Amino acid sequence: MKARIHVTLKNGVLDPQGKAIEHTLGSLGFDGVNEARQGKFIELDIAETDEAKARETVTAMCEKLLANTVIENYSIDLEQ
Amino acid sequence: MSEITPEIVAEHGINEEEYALVLEIMGREPNLLELGIFSVMWSEHCSYKSSKKWLKTLPTEGPQVIMGPGENAGVIDIGDGNAAIFKMESHNHPSFIEPYQGAATGVGGILRDVFTMGARPIANVNALRFGEPDHPKTRHLVSGVVAGVGGYGNCVGVPTVAGEVEFDPSYNGNILVNAMTVGLAKADRIFTAQASGVGNPVVYVGSKTGRDGIHGATMASAEFDDDSDEKRPTVQVGDPFTEKLLIEACLELMQTDAIVAIQDMGAAGLTSSSFEMASSGDMGVELNLDQVPQREEGMTPYEMMLSESQERMLIILKPGKEDLARSIMDKWDLDFAVIGKLTDSKRMVLKFHGDVVGDLPIKPLAHHSPEYDRPWVPTPDSDDVLASDIQEAADTTQALKTLMSSPNMSSRRWVWEQYDHMVMGDTIQRPGGDAGVVRVHGTDRALAVTSDCTPRYCKANPVRGGAQAVAETYRNITAVGATPLAITDNMNFGNPERPEIMGQFVGCIEGMRDACLALDYPVVSGNVSLYNETNGKGILPTPVIGGVGLIKNSDKTATVTFGSEGESLVLIGDSIGHVGMSIYLDVIEGRREGNAPVVDLAAERKNGDFVRSQIEGGFVESCHDLSDGGLAAAVADMAIASNMGVEVIKPAEVETPTTAWLFGEDQGRYLISIGDAESLLEAAEEAGVSAAIVGRTGGNDLTLPGGSTISVAELRACNEAWMPNYMAG
Amino acid sequence: MKAAVIVFPGSNCDRDIQVALRQSMGSEPQMVWHKDADFDDVDLICLPGGFSYGDYLRCGAMSAKSPVMKEVVARANKGVPVLGICNGFQILTECGLVPGALMRNSNLKFVCRDLHLKVERNDTVFTKQYQAGQNIRIPVAHHDGNYFVDAEGLKALEDNGQVAFRYSAEDGSVNDHSNPNGSLNNIAGVYNAKGNVLGMMPHPERLCEDVLGGTDGRPMFDSLVAALS
C-alpha cells in the first residue's frame, strides 16, 4: 500500500519559504496568488494491507518523526 | 552489443583520428562500453590533451614539495612532521546548468581529492565568476552557486575562509566555479592511488551508484550552445552528509594499516579511478560489476562505469583486511563491497552476469591518450594608457566612493556570511582580508590561503596577467605575515582549437612560470577547464591561482585593521601610476583599455620579503596589499575594516598626477600602518625597498588628496550595500 | 567535573566544544558515539553543533530519536545539566527537553557572523560568570535558527525566566534590527523549566581564545566547571 503524507506548517506559523515563493511568483507576473505555503511530501510504500491498521501506523509515524507537531500539521492519503 | 557507427563515435566526442588510435590500441572494434570508457578517459577533462604540452613547462619542484602534479592533489612540507595537501578544481559547466548542485558537487569533489590522500580538510576557498549583473541569468546563478557552496561546505564542517566573486559579461554564458580545499596530514602518512599486489581486493565504499552524471566528463569538455539547458539530467546531486561520513570513515581506516591505495571516484567515476590506480601501479584489474552497490534497478555496465554519482571511493586493501574495513564502513553506515581484484594482466577486465563485457589494455589507454600541439598565435600587444592620458578626477573621494560601490569592488560580506568560516575552531583570519588564516590544529603554526586572478589583465597581456595572478597570491599571503610556499592553478579558457585562445593559454603559462621561478613558489597541483565559450564567444582568460603560505607563529600575523589613531600609513613599492586596464579606468571613465601592469618579479620578491620580516618582527600594526583600485581602494578597505578614519597625503616629491597615483594599479605594493614609521623607513632603505609615508590614521573620516571628505560609515554603507541590494532586486 | 560530548553522524562542532571544555576543565571530556547509549555517569552532557543526519527531514529530528537521546532525556530529567548548541539546540527541541521549534531563518539564508547576545540571568550553572544583562559577542552559524513557540508557550517562557539569551545590538538594545533570523522576542537560547537544560543557537565554543577573535564564550565553560566540580 502507498501512504502519501503531506506535512504543512500550522496556520499562524510564519512560513518564510512560502512568502518567498509568493513574492517571486508576483515578480514573474503571476498575479492573484493570495498566499503560498510550502510543505513536505513523503511517500511510503508499506507492507500493511489493512487500511485502518495502516492509517494507525502512519499516524504514529507522523506523530513520532515525520512531522514536528509544535509547528506542523500532517495529512495522510492511503492508496491500495 | 551494438554496432559502432561513426555517429556513435562522434556522440562520444571522439574524432576520426582518435578513433583510429582506439582501433589500434584495441586491435579490434570496441563495444559500446569500451568506447564509452575511451571517451571519458580521453576527454579534455581527464586527459589534458590540449594543455599537457604547456603544463609540463611549469616549475613543480622545491625543497618544500613532497608531491607535485600527477597525484590527486599537491603535497607540501609545513614543518613539525606535517604536510599541507591542496588543489583547486573547476565545476564550471555543471554549475551553469544547475547552480546549486553544480557548485555543491564541485566542493564535494575537491574535498575528496584531498582526503583521499590522507588529509583532514581544514579550509575551503572558492573563486567564482559570473556574467554581468544585468544579465537575466546572473542573479539566479549567484544565488544558487553561493547557496550550493555553503550548503555543502557548511554541512561537511570545513570552513570556507577565502575566495573571490567577480562579474564580467564574458562569463554570461559560462560562469566559473573553482573550488579549492586545503587539508592537513602527517608527512609520513600520505596515501596515493598506486595499486600493488596481485590478488589484492578492490573495494568500493560510499554511496550507491545511480545514473547521475553519465557523460559529465565529456560534457565538461564541450562548448555550450543554446540547447545546453536540456543537458540538465546529467548533473549530479551532492550529499554532503554522506561526504562527512566518508571523510571520517576514510580517515579512520587510514589510521590502520589496511590500505594499499585509495582513489576517489570523481569525473568519469569508476572508470577513471580504476584506470588511474591500475595504471600508476602498472597492474591489471578485474571488476565484477554485479557487486557494485546500485541505487537504481537494471543498470548496465556502461552506466555503472560512466556514472558520476558522488561520494564514492575505490580502495585497494591488503589481503585479509576486508573485515576490518567493512566494520569501519558499517560504523559510519556506508556501503562496502569487494568488487574485484588486482591482476598481473595489465588489462582491465569487466565482468557482468558471468560474461566478460569489456577488456581493455590499461597503459595505452591511460598514457597514450592523444596529446595535441594546438596551433597558437601570441596575443598582440595593446597600446598603453599613460597616467597623463586620463582626466584628473574632479573629486577623488567621490570617485573612490563610486568605485567602492561598483559591482566588482563592493564588499562580498553577503557571500561569505553564508559560508561557515569558523567551524573547526582554528580560523584566525576570517574572509574579507588579504588571505584566510587557519591554525594547524594544536600547534602555533598557521596556514594562509587565498585565490586570485585578474582576467582583464590576462586578456590584455597574457604573459603579464599570468605573472600577476601568481604574484598577487604571493602578496596576499605575505600581507598576513606568511611565507608563500606553493600554488595550485585552475586554468579556465575558451576553445583551445582557436589559435588566439591557445595563445592566451600559452602566454599565461609563460607568465606564471616566470613568477613561480622568481618567487620560489612552485605549482603542485592544478586543473584545466577549456571550451568555456558560448556561440563562439570565449571567456576572459582566467588562470585562477590558489596559494598556500606558512605562518610559524600564529601570534605574529597582520590584518587589515589599523591598531589605533595616529599611526602612519607607509606605502611599500614603486608607484608610477599604471592606469591601463585599471578598475578606475573601467568604472569611472568607462574605458577598458591599455596594457596590463608589468610585474617586476625581483621587486615583488624583495618587497614581499621585507614586509614579511616586518610583520614577523611584530613591528607593524596592519598590512594590506594593493591590487584593484590601487592605493585609494586599499586605504578604503583598511578604514572600513577598522571603523576608523584616515587622511591620505601625497608626498611632495611625487610627480605622478594625483588621480593616477591614487588609483593606478602598479604591482608589488603594500600599505602598512605603524606607530613609529622612522625605523620602518630606515629598514626599508637598508633593504633597498621603496617606502614613503602617505597618510595618517584617526578620526571618523577618509580624506584623499584632490578630494573631499567622506565618513567611513558612509563609505562602508556604500561598499556593503551593492551586493545585498543587487541580490534582493 | 566530568563531561560527555555526544557525537552524532554529521556532528561537526564536536571537536570545537571538546577543545573549549578541555581548556576550562583542564582535563578531557568524554566523546560518546551516538550508538553508545550506555555511557559513563557525567556531570555535564553536551550536544554539539553540526548537521546530524544531514539536517534531512528536519534539523535534529533523526538524532532526537536515537537511542542515546533516550538516555540523555532520562538523565536530564534527573537533573544532569545538558547544553545543546546550534544543532544540539535543534535536537533538544525535537526531543522536547526544551520548548519550541527552530525554523528556517526568516531571510532563508545561512548566516555565519559574530553578533551580540544579552545574558538574561546569571543564576544558572551555565551563566554564573556573566553578569545579568551583560552584552556579549558570540558567533552564529546556522540556516534554521528562527525560534518559534506558540503564544501560550512564549508567555510561559517569559514568565518563568526561561529565556537564556536574546539577540542584541552592539549597544545592548534588543530590537528587530538585531535579530538575525526572525526568532520570536529575539530569543537565542532557552532553558527548560528546571533550568538544567540550555539550548542555544550561538556558538560560545568558537570564541574562547584571543587568537580566534574573542573570549566572550569562555565564561560559560568556566561557569560550568566552577558549578559542577
UniProtKB/TrEMBL annotation, chain A:
Predominant location: cytoplasm
Subcellular localization, as worded in the UniProt entry: Cytoplasm
Keyword Cell wall biogenesis/degradation in record: no
Keyword Manganese: no
Cellular component, GO annotation: cytoplasm
Pathway(s) it belongs to: Purine metabolism; IMP biosynthesis via de novo pathway; 5-amino-1-(5-phospho-D-ribosyl)imidazole from N(2)-formyl-N(1)-(5-phospho-D-ribosyl)glycinamide: step 1/2
Catalytic activity: N(2)-formyl-N(1)-(5-phospho-beta-D-ribosyl)glycinamide + L-glutamine + ATP + H2O = 2-formamido-N(1)-(5-O-phospho-beta-D-ribosyl)acetamidine + L-glutamate + ADP + phosphate + H(+)
EC number: 6.3.5.3
Annotated keywords: ATP-binding, Cytoplasm, Ligase, Nucleotide-binding, Purine biosynthesis
Enzyme kind, highest EC tier: ligase
GO terms (BP aspect): 'de novo' IMP biosynthetic process
Gene Ontology molecular function, alphabetical: ATP binding; phosphoribosylformylglycinamidine synthase activity
Family: Belongs to the PurS family.
Matches recorded under NCBIfam families: phosphoribosylformylglycinamidine synthase subunit PurS, PRK05974.1
Stored PANTHER family: PHOSPHORIBOSYLFORMYLGLYCINAMIDINE SYNTHASE SUBUNIT PURS (PTHR34696:SF1)
Function: Part of the phosphoribosylformylglycinamidine synthase complex involved in the purines biosynthetic pathway. Catalyzes the ATP-dependent conversion of formylglycinamide ribonucleotide (FGAR) and glutamine to yield formylglycinamidine ribonucleotide (FGAM) and glutamate. The FGAM synthase complex is composed of three subunits. PurQ produces an ammonia molecule by converting glutamine to glutamate. PurL transfers the ammonia molecule to FGAR to form FGAM in an ATP-dependent manner.
Assembly: Part of the FGAM synthase complex composed of 1 PurL, 1 PurQ and 2 PurS subunits.
Protein name per the record: Phosphoribosylformylglycinamidine synthase subunit PurS
Taxonomic classification: Bacteria, Pseudomonadati, Pseudomonadota, Alphaproteobacteria, Rhodospirillales
